[in-house]
Amino acid sequence: MKKATIIAALLISSAATTFAQTWNVDKAHSRIGFNVTHLSVADLGGTFNSIDAKITSAKPDFSDAAVEFSADINSINTDNEQRDKHLQTADFFDAEKFPKLTFKSTSWKKVADKKYKVAGDLTLHGVTKPVVLDVVFNGTSTNPMSKKTIAGFNITGKVKRSEFGVAPSMPAAMLSDEVTLLASTEFAKD
Predict the structure, then answer these.
(1) In the beta sheet, which residues pair with residue 149?
(2) At 1, is the secondary structure helix, strand, or coil?
(3) CB 66, CB 105: distance < 8 Å
């Protein structure tokens, strides 16, 4: 009986692994960005133009999903070339020393119909901290061009730049410590 239970558990585990799907980010239809407040009066934003991400999930509602994400710091774009170059320096992100930011989920919990809390480890500027992101699952569809199944997500969250050692000499009155993360993403199922 004990042997039968072990075999059944292995088969169930194997079946769950077999049905897991990998979804890769559609870079042309995804935007990963941030907003900060400048001089306490104006929100300024930017994006990372070079990103990579994948989601693995066996359930169609993504309630068991795991996500991994990375962005190239040198691809930062605030629509101001001089500012972008400054953000890449040691004054801010220090892209030469820390060329990527990464996020790897540790849990993905459904909190409402299409809303999730995704916890994970964000690594930025050589520092790794746990963060929680709010995710809205926009549904699935079929891309008429590629014929692939696609899924869309909106992601928001907040982090403090001081916790990651970004721009430590910049006072909060000049540039807010709180940074809002904003993303609209599309993933295609392999």
Answers:
(1) 142
(2) coil
(3) yes
Q: What values do phi and psi take at 173, rounded to 5?
A: -70, -25
Our CA angle for 135, 118, 137, nearest 5°, is 25
Residue 70 tokens, joined: 């990375």
Q: Which two tokens stand for residue 23?
A: 């979804």
DSSP string, 35-90: EEEETTTEEEEEEESSEEEEEEESSTT-TT-EEEEEEEGGGEE-S-HHHHHHHTST
Residue-wise pLDDT tens digits, 5-30:
555 555 555 444 457 899 999 999 99
Separate counts of helices (H) and strands (E) for the chain: 2, 11
pLDDT for the residue numbered 2:
62
Tokens 């119909």 identify what position? 113
Structure tokens at 118: 């995704």
Which residue is listed with tokens 């999730």?
116
Using CA atoms, how far apart are residues 68 and 46, in angstroms rounded to an integer? Answer: 21
pLDDT of residue 16: 47
| Ranges under pLDDT 50 in the chain | 14-17
Q: What is the DSSP letter of 30?
A: -
Predicted structure pTM score: 0.86
